[in-house]
Amino acid sequence: MAESLPLCPECDSEHAYEMGALLVCPMCGHEWSFESDSDDASASETVVRDAVGNPLADGDTVTLVTSLKVKGSLSIKAGTKVRGIRLIDPVNGHDIDCKIDGFGAMLLKSSVVKKA
Questions:
Q1: What is the pLDDT, as a whole number, of residue 46?
Q2: I need a labelling partner for 112 at 20 to 30 A (CA). Which of 22, 28, 32, 40 fits?
Q3: b/e 19-42 (16+ beta carbons within 10 angstroms → b)
Q4: What are phi and psi of 34, to 5 degrees?
């Protein structure tokens, strides 16, 4: 039974044991679930999709589908093209890092853009 249990992801100890739905490492005290091993692999393969459902990738060109108010009176109009986007881990729901001509660097949500 011990051969079927994975090594501890924190300290690589082989002494992990089951406690309910969790696996526990007695060496470092780390707890994790069986699903976390498969979730880690799928989390790195998460696909970011635009407002229409098209998958996005680094370097894509996108178009804003809604006007965005920025810094009070400034706004970026719908239809503005953004070239060379970079996908990032979500920060407050913003998962695209980009530079908009005439405005500068900013973060966007994938729900307000579509692939051009």
A1: 79
A2: 40
A3: eeeebbbeeeebebeeeeeeeeee
A4: -60, -40
CA distance 50 to 10: 35
């051969």: which residue's tokens? 3
pTM for the full predicted model? 0.60
8: DSSP letter: P
* E strands present in the chain: 17-19, 22-24, 31-33, 62-64, 68-70, 74-76, 81-82, 86-91, 94-100, 104-108, 113-115
Q: What is the pLDDT of residue 28?
A: 86
pLDDT over 90 (residue 38): no
